[in-house]
Design a protein that fits this description.
This protein is of the alpha/beta class. Helices cover about 40% and strands about 15% of the residues. The chain is built from 7 helices and 5 strands.
Length: about 180
């Protein structure tokens, strides 16, 4: 059984401003870099077999800061990316509501089926993230692996291992730089 240490990337300006990031690629801000350094400090004595990260800058930069402490390379996997938010990327909720009122209402009515125009269905995110983690677990069947990813992407893993209905996925989204530990079979 693979032990996974999951963490969401550090803060970006878009997090602070409440903008949907999705697969847009804003960098960490100074708070995010401090959060990543604090993660590195918290994990300094933790034996890690490998470090994996989304290929988006905010996750890979967080992972690099942690990896320096462990002398490990960061292995990037684009399947660990955040949900693609399509035309909503870069917008705040109030802007989305103003520009896409019917689509937003549909999303609120059924968040698991609703998606941003040009975006990705939530279930598709879960399938790609679960496939990535299954592949990682096959490579490290008994080790402890750090995965640095994104809020919704990590929530799909957490809801699965906790046996919760997928409809609760949004309540499992971790905060920036929050650590969650799970076992993956």
């Amino acid at each position: 059984m693979t032990k996974l240490v999951l963490t969401r990337h550090g803060q970006t300006d878009w997090n602070r401003e409440g903008r949907y990031q999705g697969q847009a690629d804003p960098p960490l801000n100074s708070t995010g870099r401090q959060q990543a350094q604090a993660l590195a400090d918290r994990l300094a004595d933790r034996p890690l077999e490998a470090i994996y990260s989304s290929d988006l800058r905010r996750a890979s930069e967080t992972a690099q800061i942690i990896a320096q402490r462990h002398g490990l390379p960061v292995r990037q996997d684009r399947r660990l990316r955040e949900i693609n938010q399509g035309e909503w990327e870069g917008l705040r909720v109030e802007e989305i509501i103003a520009r896409y009122p019917q689509i937003w209402a549909s999303f609120l009515n059924d968040p698991l089926q609703g998606q941003a125009p040009g975006g990705e269905p939530p279930v598709a995110v879960a399938e790609r993230v679960w496939a990535a983690v299954s592949d990682i677990a096959k490579l490290h069947p008994t080790g402890t692996v750090l995965i640095v990813s994104h809020g919704f992407a990590l929530a799909t893993l957490l809801v699965r291992v906790h046996g919760a209905p997928f409809s609760q996925v949004y309540s499992y989204i971790p905060n920036n730089a929050e650590i969650k530990e799970i076992e993956w079979r």
